[in-house]
Specification:
six-stranded mixed sheet, 45% strand, Archaeosine Trna-guanine Transglycosylase, Chain: A, domain 4, 12% helix, 136 residues, 6 strands, mainly beta
Length: 136
């Protein structure tokens, strides 16, 4: 008798989030669970992680929540967003959100994708991309 598959053994991804290095690596290493953005998003579930300018999917994470942050919450959130000098900074956006991630997984090999013209935050995969992320 086989074991039941883990929820992230095989995933069909419709969206990829473009993130600048070194932040994408910190997410995949479990050092960063909040991505700070100036907009809300309704997207939830598994998303691909794409280092900006790479044209490649390097990992997968579950986007589980979005929280609007006050200045105090942003400054107290260093363990989550890993912006070390947050205590000395103003909010990075007029309205600031923490996109909350769980269960980061690195892909055994990065996957190339066709980058749509104009995509700067999200990439919508047409057709969806199927991946098998590794264990941590």
């Amino acid at each position: 008798m086989g074991t039941a598959p883990r929820p992230m053994d095989t995933l069909t991804l419709t969206h990829g989030l473009i993130i600048r290095p070194p932040w994408v690596e910190r997410i995949l290493d479990g050092q960063k669970t909040w991505e700070i953005r100036g907009t809300n998003t309704q997207i939830r579930g598994p998303i691909a992680l794409i280092p900006s300018g790479s044209g490649r999917i390097v990992g997968v994470v579950q986007l589980v929540a979005v929280r609007r942050l006050s200045l105090d919450a942003f400054r107290a959130g260093v363990p989550y967003h890993a912006i070390d000098d947050a205590a000395q900074r103003p909010l990075p956006y007029p309205t600031c959100y923490a996109w909350v991630f769980e269960d980061p997984r690195r892909l055994p090999q990065s996957i190339a994708y066709t980058h749509p013209r104009g995509a700067v935050r999200w990439v919508r995969f047409q057709p969806p991309v199927v991946v098998n992320p590794s264990d941590r």
